[in-house]
Write a structure and sequence with these properties.
Glutaminyl-tRNA synthetase; rod-shaped; mainly alpha; about 70 residues
């Protein structure tokens, strides 16, 4: 446990803690909005379509190579 010798030290640590809290809050917001975008309908459809097209192309190439 830290022992404070002045109110200035207390205020300084409180300011640092408030800033850390604000930074953490903004990081959480950014993560939330990033997740919201990643799980958005159009994004999911686009990624699924891309996955299916890649698999179909790979299958077509494999059939040409192996007959």
């Amino acid at each position: 446990m830290k022992v404070y010798t002045s109110f200035e030290e207390v205020n300084k640590d409180l300011k640092v803690l408030r800033l850390q809290k604000d930074i953490s809050r903004e990081e959480i917001k950014a993560s939330y909005y990033g997740l919201k975008d990643d799980l958005g309908f159009l994004n999911v459809i686009g990624k699924t379509t891309g996955f299916i097209l890649k698999r179909a192309l790979a299958l077509k190439v494999a059939k040409k190579i192996f007959g």
